[in-house]
Specification:
single chain, about 575 residues, alpha+beta, Immunoglobulin-like, 7-stranded mixed beta sheet, 5-stranded antiparallel beta sheet, flat
Length: about 575
């Protein structure tokens, strides 16, 4: 009877479970839902459900619990997700799957009821309430009453109180800047700065910068920007060293609507040739040649440079004497968009070909713009140019004097028909391909590759039959992979330490052919002591595992993560030397 009871209890303890649990089955549409997928034995190829009708605002985060009580080992591993409902109704959290010891296990579906928004109690100790009072997304605008086509600058700042921290952020809803020409200013580094919000001291991070040029007069609306952020807030619990535990809360923050009142440009004093340029500009007309022969080409450049709406107006058209052939201009822009607006140069380059001898004056050109400093229109006139053609046929038409008559710009087809196009081609003599060196090389190469191919096939078959070796190589690759993943996740605490822990576990699997479920710090320490690993290396490995476990409860900087990554590389290299 005693033996039968022992066998039954052993069978029950060996059973594998894989379950799904939710924080609540009924919630308001303004609440969040936590889902935990928990197993009592480690597995591979975890696949979550698609979470239809929910938005994943956090996770997956992974936690592992390994303990020994009275000689009995207890293991559990969980994947956690935080969900926000998309609408009201009754929905199903579908089945998650995982493979454990070659078998596929599935969780049971869970019904969730989402009701209308509810009033949340203002509990000063509630992490969600603390996060809502400690974080604010604000849009700051440089000028709420600009002129038409005047640059304005918007900075989106995320303010958070000094006692809290921001782990990561994700843009949820991009505003559509209707009736504006818009340009995003790239932010390379997110720096924490100090400022004030509603009279109180806050830290802030600039999440986004935009430059806008209003294209319409009147009252214009700028849509809100929404972000999903992970906020670290202090709790009332403390660790053994007296430090406060911190809790991570996912929260959606958004700016309000912004209203811009755009003023029209004044009608008084507006030049007839004004084409919409607003800013501060220089203007000139340049020629690359002053003297040339008939049928020889020259280039005339119409150039505007400076600061303003450079991409939003047209350059004045070039007018030439009829005896000059002119072709459609080539447009060139070298414009940078900064916080203060557009800076740079725009150029129209005309190709001009004179057909006859003579002296051809190029008429002055004018360019008008609205100067934001003086609030007045300004007109710049180019210097007078004269093109001298000293060789070629004489013009016998009535306009041989070179009088200025507006010329029709020729379409850019057969553009250089007036250029000389005579050629001096010579035949190419080539040797026959048959029995050439290349012929014999291509013929014999397949035969020379046969021994190499046979060797490669045999080598691949040998490696395929080496089951143990393949498993070791696979786990070694996994260790390197997760160290690489950890390096890419610097600054993201949970992802970094999850990848680091996986790398350490896979390294041990490759060295000692152990299953993940056998891992705990005591077992690892015993194995390394039996392998006569020196004490400093052993303690370094164990301290890394402890760091991975404590990372969820301890605020850590990127520098701390980099130090742990460097330590992991050194420890693995040291173990390789001592265990080989």
């Amino acid at each position: 009877m005693l033996l039968y009871t022992f066998l039954i209890s052993g069978f029950v303890s060996a059973q594998i479970s894989f379950t799904a649990k939710v924080s609540k089955k009924q919630l308001g549409i303004n609440e969040r839902l936590r889902v935990d997928f928990t197993m009592n034995k480690d597995g591979d190829d975890f696949e979550p459900p698609n979470f239809e009708n929910f938005t994943v605002v956090g996770g997956p985060s992974q936690s592992i619990n390994n303990s020994w009580v009275n000689g009995v080992r207890s293991f559990s591993k969980s994947y956690s997700y935080f969900l926000a409902p998309q609408k009201r109704g009754t929905f199903v959290i579908g089945q998650a799957t995982i493979k454990i010891d070659g078998e596929t296990y599935k969780t049971l579906p869970i019904n969730i009821t989402v009701s209308a928004a509810i009033d949340k109690p203002k509990n000063p100790n509630d992490p969600n309430y603390i996060a809502s009072q400690s974080t604010h997304l604000v849009a700051e605008i440089s000028n709420a009453k600009p002129y038409l086509n005047e640059a304005i600058y918007i900075v989106y700042k995320l303010y958070f109180s000094p006692g809290t921290g921001i782990q990561n952020s994700r843009e949820l809803d991009k505003p559509r800047y209707s009736d504006f020409w818009s340009q995003n200013i790239e932010i390379k580094d997110f720096k924490i700065e100090q400022g004030t919000y509603k009279g109180e001291n806050y830290n802030y991070v600039i999440l986004k910068k935009m430059v806008l040029y209003p294209q319409k007069v009147g009252k214009l609306n700028i849509e809100p920007l929404a972000y999903d952020i992970a906020v670290e807030v202090p709790t009332q619990r403390r660790d053994i060293f007296g430090r406060l535990f911190r809790s991570t809360v996912n929260r959606t923050v958004a700016t309000g609507n912004l209203t811009i009142r755009v003023k029209p440009l004044p009608e008084a004093g507006k030049p007839a040739d004004f084409s919409g340029a607003v800013g501060d500009f220089d203007f000139k007309l340049e020629s690359n040649k002053q003297t040339l022969k008939a049928t020889e080409a020259l280039e005339l450049k119409v150039i505007v440079s400076g600061k303003g709406n450079l991409k939003l107006f047209k350059l004045p058209k070039l007018v030439l004497p009829s005896a000059l052939e002119v072709y459609e201009p080539e447009h060139f822009e070298k414009v940078l968009t900064r916080a203060s607006g557009m800076h740079g140069t725009i150029i129209d380059t005309y190709t001009v070909v004179p057909n006859y001898q003579g002296s051809y004056p190029i008429p002055n050109m004018s360019f008008s713009y609205f100067d934001l400093k003086t609030k007045r229109y300004k007109t710049i006139t180019s210097e007078r140019l004269v093109i001298n053609v000293d060789e070629g046929p004489m013009n016998t038409s009535n306009n041989s004097s070179g009088a200025i008559v507006e010329n029709v710009i020729t379409p850019n087809l057969n553009q250089f028909s007036s250029f000389k196009t005579t050629t001096n081609l010579k035949p190419i003599h080539s040797k026959p391909f048959f029995k050439s060196n290349l012929f014999w090389l291509l013929l014999l190469t397949p035969f020379l590759l046969i021994p190499f191919t046979v060797f490669m096939v045999r080598n691949r078959m040998t490696r395929a039959l080496d089951v143990t070796g393949n498993k070791i190589r696979k786990t070694n690759r996994l260790a390197r992979k997760y160290l690489s993943v950890a390096k890419k996740s610097l600054g993201q605490k949970e992802q970094f330490y999850d990848a680091l822990e996986r790398a350490l576990h896979n390294y041990l699997k490759s060295k000692f052919r152990l299953e993940t479920s056998e891992f705990n710090k005591e077992k690892i320490e015993e194995i390394l002591q039996n392998k006569k690993v020196n004490r400093s290396t052993l303690e370094g490995f164990i301290s890394l595992l402890k760091a991975c476990e404590l990372a969820r409860y301890t605020p850590l900087s990127t520098v701390d993560m980099q130090n742990d990554l460097d330590k992991a590389s050194k420890v693995i290299n040291a173990l390789d030397k001592q265990l080989n």
